[in-house]
Amino acid sequence: MKIKFLPLIAVLFAATSIMTSCLDNDVDQITYTSETSITGFSLGTLHIDRVGKDKNGLDSPYVDTLDCSNYPFTIDQINRTITNKDSLPVGTHIDKVITSITYDAGMLGYTPKGSDHDTIWTSTDSIDFTEPVEFKVYAYSGVEGKPYKVTINVHQQEPDTISWKKFDNNPFSAGNLSEQKAVYANGKVYVFGKVYVFGKNGNGTHIEYSDVSNDNPTSWVAVTKNVPADIDTYSATACAGYIYFLAGTDKQLYKLDANSNEITSVNTETFEMLIGGNDIKSELYAVKEGEKGKKSGIYKENTWTEDANPFTLFPAGKPFFSNTTTASYNSDITTTIALCNSTTANDTAALVFNRISSDNKWEKRMQNLPLPNLENVTMIYYDGKLYAFGGGYGEIKPFSQFYCSTDNGLCWRPVTECMAFPAEFSELYTAHNKNYSCAVTPKLENETYRGNFIWIVWEDGSICRGRINRLGFTPKW
Q: Which listed residue, 288, 302, 312, 477, has the most CB atoms within 10 A of its CB?
């Protein structure tokens, strides 16, 4: 039953109680409470839009049901607001909502969408919450409670889907750059970050950076002071607050301070290759050319230590991508994974290497589910997982999908949902002569909803920025 004049009914209830108490002095007087609070609010089963597979294996939309009774609602008794801080999933229908509400003694009224008067609430009412709805309690004492504004939040983005944005008006100051490698510097040391790109063009090697501290790239700026000649652009590696790289015919070690953009040589140390950096232990993994060939080892605190069992199978002339994590069973032990594509003819899998700090040696990883030997492959650590992608291989088109590993490179599975590249990336890869690089902005300290971006830098300096939507949601709790 819907009644327009709830305040009048409440007054009649109060008057009835007074009249009853005056008929006979032997009848106890009834005093009704004037409390007008809503004390509990929850939802029932709602409808939600889903996408499934039809009998032909094609995407097919359908409507499913979703039990929303466990979604907590916060009742702010001071400001008289009720809302769910944990938003309902994308596609949830909130135009026909069944609610469960507890409140103080009396009656509960609400103003339906499009109406200018209150109506009595019942637990079977189907209410439209596409806009906030006001509820109020009418006490039997005749007191009309202040209204509560009820808002049901629904995610407008699929949380696990990655969204991309392209920045076109951002050319390199030095022109197109090939043989690129991008490095994000000092994400844990400084409050700002810069994406540095090492690359080559007709005028030699260049280093340029874009400040992305505000989650948007600034114009590219060339590093010009004390830049050595003949930089091995693929050697660029971030470690312990610096970017290390090799340059010159003897491949001397240099470091770039991302705070001042100062470049200095590191003693007179020379290496054949830099494989990666271990931020946790502040050490570089490198390869030296010795009397008996190339030997792997560690460079730390200005000291080179050759591995007891040197690894000699790192292919030359390729960019390596590495990531280091702490072992779950011992915080003093780290595991480092390094990856590059294979140059061996007919090799169908990319090369993955692993190193456990307690063993002090590299091993070639025997992959149970191998990563295809993608052209110009890149590996990143993102959202707690390893992802790899790159140019095509066989029937695999360039930038057609991510490959993910959750077991330190042992198994690589193609990502078939949510994490995806725009279709145009394959065309961009070809249009930019297969020249690109990639860096990842870590979550910025004390900034829960900032950072966490993937930056794809193309040959001309244009940038594509991607992020999993939930990593950018403003924290609710």
A: 288
Q: Which string of DSSP letters, residue by residue, matches 59-98? A: EEEEEEEEE-TTS--EEETTTTEEE-SSPBPTTB--SSB-
In whole angstroms, what is the distance from residue 17 CA to residue 394 CA? 85
Local confidence pLDDT in tens for the 477 residues of the chain: 445 445 545 444 544 444 444 445 555 565 656 789 999 999 999 999 887 878 887 778 899 999 999 999 999 999 999 999 888 988 899 999 999 999 998 899 999 998 888 899 999 999 999 999 999 999 988 899 999 999 999 988 888 889 999 998 889 888 889 999 999 986 322 222 356 777 887 668 889 899 888 888 889 888 888 889 899 999 999 998 899 999 999 999 999 998 888 999 998 889 999 999 999 999 999 999 876 678 999 999 989 999 999 999 899 888 999 999 998 888 899 999 999 999 887 889 999 999 999 998 999 999 999 999 999 999 999 999 999 999 999 899 999 999 999 999 999 999 988 889 999 999 999 999 999 999 998 876 655 557 789 999 999 999 999 999 888 876 554
DSSP for 243-254 reads EEEEETTTTEEE
How far CA 232 is from CA of 250, 251, 447, in Å, comes to: 11, 8, 35
Segments in 376-476 forming alpha helices (H): 424-431
